[in-house]
Amino acid sequence: MLRVLASRRAFVCAAVAVGVQGARDKLPIYPTPDPEVLLVETPSELEKQIGIARQAATTTYLDAHARVQAVISRWIGVEQAVESRVKSLIAPDEPLTPGILYVGVATLTGSVLARNRLFWRITLPPALLVLSLNHFLPKTTHNVSTYFSELEDKHFPAFAEKHEIAKAHSAMTWDRVKDATQNGRETFSNGVADVVGRVEEATGLKLRETLGWRSRAGDAGEAQAAKLAGAAAQASETAQAVVETQVEKVADAVEAKPAQPKRLV
Question: Which of 45, 97, 103, 213 could bridge across to 208 with cysteines, CB 3.0–4.6 Å?
Fold first, then answer.
């Protein structure tokens, strides 16, 4: 019985398979559309390596170009900063064309004069350079000195402090030298005046008038008198202003004070 059922099932399956195959082999009545053909591009290993190398070269080039542009931008910024700083240091009312030429001539003159001595060759040109700068371009030299002082205070504070102390000592020494020179001149002038006065008393000659010392003394006296008169006038004006202020304060106090009632005794 089981064998019969198995044979029937096999027969049915074979019939179905034959029918499906016949249906497939049968031509359709209507035209069928052409099937789409997809082409898949598959690069070779060489093309892959060439693409990787090209991408690496392009990345390296772009990176190098960006770095070069950054350096150029930084350099342009430095140039603009230097230009603005130089323009701020140069005084607008001091032309550089003749002044800088005079400074160069003075420095070269120092080099020529000190060509035979090593010590003077080292010290004389810088000294003449500084002196000529202070003489021909005083405002520009002052601006440059102030700028260097600011840099020194910012980056080297200890050295700047020592520099200020040295400048203070130099200024004190210079003031002492000027005072000593002035005192020496006054002493010498007084000695010469005494000698001339004795000669006038002994000979009767009017040497002071001949030398013009009386007019100079008169001019000095007039200048001193004018200075004293100005100081006295200023002091009197100050005193008058103080008195007027005090008078106004007293008047205001009197007006503000209430009147006391009279008492009948």
Answer: 213
At residue 92, φ and ψ (nearest 5 deg) are -70, -25
134 touches 141 (CB < 8 A): yes
Cα four-point dihedral sign 110, 112, 113, 114 = positive
Q: For residue 242, what pLDDT band results from cuts at 50, 70 and 90?
A: low
**Residue of 250 and 49 predicted with greater confidence:** 49
Pick the more confident residue, 70 or 191. Answer: 70
Q: Give the residue with greater pLDDT, 213 vs 130.
A: 130
Write down the residue that tokens 């500084």 correspond to. Answer: 130
Asked if 192 and 208 count as a contact pair (C-beta separation under 8 A), the reply is no
pLDDT at position 91: 85
Higher pLDDT, 75 or 263: 75
CA dihedral 45, 50, 53, 54 (to 10 degrees): -140
CA distance 135 to 230: 34
| 8 A C-beta contact, residue 112 and residue 121 | no
Secondary structure of residue 130 in the 3-state scheme: helix
Three-state secondary structure readout of 157-186: HHHHHHHHHHHHHHHHHHHHHHHHHHHHHH
How close are the terminal C-alpha atoms of the chain, in Å?
166
Which pair of structure tokens corresponds to residue 152?
């020194």
Quick check: 160 and 149 in contact, CB under 8 A?
Answer: yes
Q: CA dihedral defined by 231, 237, 239, 245, rounded to 10 degrees?
A: -150
